[in-house]
User: Fold these one by one.
Assistant:
Number 1:
Amino acid sequence: MPALAVDAAAPVAHAFASCVDAARFPGGAPMLMVPTAAADSTTTTATKQEWSADLSSALYNVDGWGAPYFFVNDDGDVAVRPHGAATLAGQEIDLAKVVAKATGPRAAGGLGLPLPLLVRFPDVLRHRVESLNAAFDYAVRSTGYGSRYQGVYPVKCNQDRHVVEDIVEFGEPFRFGLEAGSKPELLLAMSCLAARGNPDALLVCNGYKDDAYVSLALTARAMGLNAVVVLEQEEELDIVVDASRRLGIRPVIGMRAKLRTKHAGHFGSTSGEKGKFGLNAAQILSVVGKLKSLGMLDCLQLLHFHIGSQIPTTALLSDGVGEAAQIYCELARLGAGMRVIDVGGGLGIDYDGTHSAQTDMSVAYSLEEYAAAVVAAVGRVCDRRNVPHPIICSESGRALVSHHSVLVFEAFSASSAAAPHPMVDTAFLLEGLPDDCRADYRNLMAAAVHGDYDTCALYADQLKRRCADQFKEGLLGLEHLAAVDGLCEIVARGVGCVDAAPRTYHVNLSVFTSLPDTWAIGQQFPILPIQRLRERPAVDGVLSDLTCDSDGKLTSFIGDRDSLPLHELPGHGVGGYYLGMFLGGAYQEALGGLHNLFGGPSVVRVAQSDGPHCFAVTRAAPGPSCADVLRAMQHEPEVMFEVLKQRTDDATAAALAGAFGAMPYLVFDADVSGGECSGMSSDSEGSAAGAAEEEDEEWEFMRGLTV
Ligand SMILES: Cc1ncc(COP(=O)(O)O)c(C=O)c1O
């Protein structure tokens, strides 16, 4: 019997190695050999020398999706050009230094914030606002367009107070306004525009409306805000007319048109004739008729439409804008007081840096080309119809806020590169096996002797399945199951069918909270290590988050990758290997949920400064604590604490209070303790890396459950 060719009592790893064919495994059956530590370190040194920051930049296509804001610097860190292409050499901000400042121990000048960390760059936001306005301004001036651009920011993209306030402030010279889609959004838009907006700025009120919403919008007009109530459905007209009569406030009305132009990508599902929103031709005529009969046709001043987010090409854009411009001209012909054409959102982001229209991850135009296409399409139609050029409004959200923030999170452990080489006691294994399993084993060994690796794999598989069945029947013990698994692993390595699956990196993050679109719609964001980029990232990894959910992972990445090039971690469970998720400033924060009660990240606001490190942290706040997320689910942390306190001593009670006050994420030795943030007070001292100017520093530490 071929099985006799091997010593049945010898550990199988050796027995199998002895019968493998040297030609198949040149160099002596490498699959069966565990690399030595010495060999490993030699390889690492060699690859370090061969690699460079430029190669990393090319590998992750940083210039493709990141320009003009993100690049890899000579230190091998991701860095930020806060003013885009206008950033001077000494103004670039090293992201790794920002993270060190934000998360470092307070005793060493850090802010002691727990990860994950959202880093906001208001300068980038300013640059986006200015670039959008400059692009339209150029298109208007260079074509002799007879009116102007006056955009609004749709607050649903990111309702964070500081983001909205920044946009209104930076947009003030451009009469930049806001768009709201619900009552709370309208309230925040009203107060923000009232406090710091340009008096001419538009306040576009979209979304389905009831009397309360419409009344609020009319009240905004009475306060001197330039609010426009946009009808999403024909029925809303009656609500507007009634509220206007009751309040004695004359409305400015807009109308959302349902275009026939349809965008084929994921974000186009709300467009086209069957789209969810807007009025069709008959409904538009009906609204015009009603307004005319009420003597209110002059109130209809704005035409709105939205082709969909991430419009892929300027050809589709021109088509849709051209169609809408025809409707605009028809409304003017019918006697409406038309003044504004609002082209909605859709100005896209090049998430994968390919500048192509093939997927939802990219778009085949620049900001300037987008603006030129809109202005040209409106101008062309109005000229043909002899209608005065309207003010062009856009509701560009994604394009304004995507770049302004970076989410930084840690990988804290990874599945091992190769499982330790199993040693199998064959005598023990054979002793307990039933006859059919023994036959499989013998056939397996025979095939090995003859170098028939396909047959080897077949018998190994059969043996494993039979043993699993025996185990389920209670006929084999765990030791046998482990021995068979070990044997099959040895065979797999020997025949070269070791599973080459990427390694799993565990990240201190909730995908559902911080990157919900990756889970919900398969969105990909650029993700890469923010440091060590002068070292070759030699490991292919996927990312698995903290939640107890099989969907809590990232397995597809820009560039058509199903794994991400990563580095070996500094150690297991130590933290300190930082990854950045870029271009996620739109939608993710508000869409994120509380799955497993993981709350949002800590947040810092980082401005370019003339200090030695080029940045100042002007605002810092830890993320929601365990108490905060419990409260969000109607629990009462204070009551819970009192109940638990009855059962323990003072020292343990203090620890319990700390647990309520800490963020829900993991804390590692390399990190500052999350507890360090608890009840922390303002402090601008010792801020070594990029210290904020004192007048800029407004620490907001919002937590602390006291015993
Ligand atoms: C009516 C409306 N306006 C503006 C936007 C913002 O679009 P984007 O983020 O693509 O600019 C949206 C998003 O879908 C929208 O529905």
Number 2:
Amino acid sequence: MSQRVYQGVKGVTDASSSILADAKLAKGKVTSPRPLDQKLREECGVVAIHGHPDAARQAYLALYALQHRGQESAGIATADGHHLANIKGMGLVSEIFTDDVLAKLPGSMAIGHTRYSTTGDSALLNAQPIRVDSTKGLIAIAHNGNLVNLGSLRARLEREGVYFQTTSDSEIIVQLIAHSKAGTLVDCIADSLRQVDGAFSIVMMTRDRIFAARDPRGFRPLSMGRLPNPDGPDTIVFASETCAFDLLRAEYDRDVLPGELVMVTEDGVTSRQYATGFPQASCIFEHVYFARPDSRVFGRWVQESRDQMGRQLARESGVPADVVVPVPDSGVTAALGYAEQAGIPFRLGLIRNHYVGRTFIEPEQRVRDFGVRLKLNPVRNLLEGKRVVLIDDSIIRGTTSRKIVRMVRGAGASEVHLRISCPPTISPCFYGVDTPSKRDLIAANKSVEEIRQFIEADSLAYLSLEGLLRSCAGPEHNGYCTACYTGNYPTQWVDVEDILPAALSL
Ligand code: SF4
């Protein structure tokens, strides 16, 4: 077993005593009943509604549109100016929030959250929004992303007598607000956000106000929109992705800026920059895979980015072929771009079963083998005798890609060429996307040729980093995090064990 330490990997390479102290404190976050090998790595969706007579239902609809960002738990908190109600549950948004449940959430303001987490993290206790009765009053909070310095913050607060009820990053933020010496609530929130480091897009609610904020590097998306109201103030909405606005018939207004704290009250919208001077590091993986193609993320349509990734991939590593086939669903847009650029017919040669229940996804090899065939099925008459270019958005461990290549070949393809619409994933994410540690990432431990042999493809090529950045460059684009492709992390703290290659971490 390798020893777990933390150290600075950008600018700080000296594992000084203070850094190691922080390391131990950081790991202190798992002194809860959760096992040591489990991390707080969730991909989440957040929403907020201000000024709507049925805010809970609006939040429900918005969360419904963000279901792809997390399927394990969901929650909605509402406020009516006096009280703050909060209901959370395990499962899909539609399973938890029936009409009867929504009726128990009165008020014109709401925040909501949908959460994915690694197995074992999904306790209802850690579902959000979290409601805390603090010295600053009742506060509900929901957040997307991961903090990287919560260990030291948590230890400091515990020394000050704080008792934590969850292992969630959100509770740290609320406790920092509660313990802030600043004068007003909005100053306390700004003070709290300045102390946390990492990725966070946050929505917060008191009895009469909504707050929305993004971390200073802008890792995770958060957009603001409005529902025009001819008889009074507009309904103001916030959501992780703009596809949520479409379901509400809300108009996209703008993105919450990195380092910005927005407050919405009866008097309108006000904003302040609580932090400045950080280079932007928005998660490029949102464009590669995570966000929906019908969303506008970091000021750019995801569909446009994926189309460009496919076109660039065709320019960089085109191969003679008869059909271009996406691995559905996330590979579809890039495959359309590839096919158009290469002048090769696009065919839906793999069909995804959208009704596969989560119960099939079990950590047992026998069931997992079955799982790929449950999810995907080849269309034999489109593949038989064809030279196939297969387009996917990532290879993580390599085992699933190998099964898909075998499936296409088994359906009669004469050649299978795999093209990946991003560079090799060589490092884990610490900012809210659940990727395995380096020892389990095939590209961290094998060359492209070795991966090709492992997955049994006739050829394999990835999109270059330059090609990916060019594909995602829009007029409002100021900078992306690409750490899972480069190992260069925008923040100081990362878990060294997670970024060791397999040979060194045994
Ligand atoms: S490490 Fe990768 S997945 Fe994580 S924030 Fe950076 S680009 Fe996104």
Number 3:
Amino acid sequence: MSAPEQFDLVVIGAGPAGEKGAAQAAYFGKRVCLIERAPKPGGAAVNTGTIPSKTLRESALHFTSLRQRGLHAIDLRVKPDITLPDFMRRERSVIETEWEIIEQNIERHGITTIQGSAHFVDPHTVEVTRYGTEPRLVSASHFLVATGSAPLAPTGYAIDGEVVVDSDSLLTLQRIPTSMIVVGGGVLGCEFACMFAALGTRVTLVNARSRLISHLDHEASDALRQAMTARLDIAVHGNVEIAGLQAVDGRARVTLTDGMNLDADVVLVCVGRAGNAGSLGLDKVGIEVDERGFIRVDSQFRTSLPHVAAAGDAIGYPALASAATEQARVAVCHAFELQYKRRVSDILPYAVWTIPEVAVVGQTEESLAARGIACETGRASFRHNARSQILGATDGFVKLVFSPEDQRLFGVTIVGEAACELIHVGMTVLAHGGTIDYFIQAAFTFPSLTDAYKYAAYDGLQRLQRRMARLPGLPAIPRERVSGD
Ligand SMILES: Cc1cc2nc3c(=O)[nH]c(=O)nc-3n(C[C@H](O)[C@H](O)[C@H](O)COP(=O)(O)OP(=O)(O)OC[C@H]3O[C@@H](n4cnc5c(N)ncnc54)[C@H](O)[C@@H]3O)c2cc1C
């Protein structure tokens, strides 16, 4: 084997974290090598997760009458003559464009790429192996491990990729199943349940907890469950688990812990994810991982070997593409002492691409209660919003959580059309430490979904005024501030 090639930074994994971390270092003049075992960059975000699933969701909404349910007769079926290749063609074209964008970014930054699987042979050297080629050694003063995560295997039964699938193998199915059991009521389970129900699949969701996406605001979780059951005909079973699963003649029979039997064409298992650290030889160089294979890092994203940083899904929570890219940039800035990005924003919006969408930023009533912080709330239903009426999308609401003392915004939860875009209005106010007065004073375009923020703020002030009548001692609110007409 020839002598190791030398770089300032070696990045392992070309998902969102690896790509952006590599580009950040190269931008500041570092010699960077990016190693990716897959033939194409993009990681889970482009190849198996975010982009394929969100493209499928968009196609499902486009090809069905779901988006126009308030305008036309309620018909939740896929429009006739739509086939699976129609869906896959769109997904393929989005993914190919994403590959191009990433490859251009890598090239523009003069980053060296190597295809192969990397593992540490000593603290400053990795070996890159690829079937049919000579192993290569690559050395650097700094490393960024951005190897992502993979679906957690269920216990008691196996993923076969055909009848029992996980989120990776699901998107390779060659047909839209007639019936599906989704195991897991977390974000991915709920998102896929909605997408396939929209495509006409009869979906049953089995959840070990009582609430769907249990960390959501309780009203958002309840509204989502209501929309999923009433609008999409999804059968939701809470507080139960899988007691047994058999795949026979291309179909699955599932027995639940409450004794119920369910049959379906496909079982989709979404029970969490585990870090992809297994093949990296981290133990050989003394890098610590936790019990789920996530790499332990400090506030500067340094592992237990300080010249090796880790970012993105490889370190676990929050496991979002947006967080992964920011973590990687911050990690690189610390590694090379660049006075540029020193910390990841602590205001991270959170999107759930169910039907309807749910988005959250900042605190919820529950998270504040857990910390013993008092709050007031204000809500506006999209039923009373003109733009929602025009769109025929009146499900959902904007909910503000704020301080009863000075009306400083603590958090926003939105359920409904465009929630994942609308949430950034709340995010901006939060980031500037603003109060709900911003929404009251602002002039939003009309008709717009954003206008719902104003009415949620009026509702909040009116609630606060009623509370003050019961609990004197809070600062008085002038009458004209609470008069939402
Ligand atoms: C179904 C699904 C839907 C999602 N939807 C969203 C969403 O809507 N919004 C959102 O923000 N996030 C979403 N996510 C999460 C998002 O995809 C991840 O947070 C993001 O991809 C993490 O980026 P990453 O770079 O850390 O890891 P990854 O994207 O997983 O990339 C890791 C890369 O490392 C490579 N690799 C691993 N080991 C090695 C090795 N030894 N040598 C070389 N290369 C290696 C892998 O091949 C991969 O390309 C979703 C995920 C899934 C599964």
